[in-house]
Design a protein that fits this description.
Structural class: alpha+beta
Radius of gyration: 20 Å
Order of helices and strands: EEHHEEHH
Helix content: 40-55%
Number of strands: 4
Number of domains: 2
Shape: elongated
Largest sheet: 4 strands, mixed
Length: 111
């Protein structure tokens, strides 16, 4: 389902580029974001929006499902990296490393 974006002047959001990111990102000043929060949420549902404070990036607003996907991707990447390091440095093997990683996560969730 496509959601219609709230009307707003083109002056409210600006397209910016960051050295760390190849594409362009929408940006809005914190004061404008506060006053146009509903429109900000509509835009962020479609693509990430950077909120700036004192002309510097402060936070990024993204859709919840996208954020959760990023967390899952990060977790998978970290697990793969841990397994790779353990396997290449001859620690305990891939299966044992994965089991240890699971146990560490379980204990962290408890404590």
């Amino acid at each position: 389902m496509t959601r219609a974006l709230a009307p707003m002047s083109t002056d409210e959001f600006e397209v910016v580029r960051f050295a760390e990111h190849a594409g362009s990102i929408l940006s809005i000043a914190a004061g404008k974001a506060k006053n146009l929060f509903g429109a900000l949420l509509d835009r962020a549902a479609a693509r990430p929006v950077v909120i700036t404070k004192n002309d510097r990036p402060a936070v990024v607003v993204v859709e919840a499902d996208r954020y959760l996907a990023l967390l899952r991707d990060q977790e998978e990447l970290l697990t793969r990296k841990a397994v790779e390091i353990a396997a290449t440095q001859g620690f305990i093997g891939e299966d044992a490393t994965a089991e240890l990683n699971t146990e560490i996560k379980r204990r962290a969730a408890i404590g």
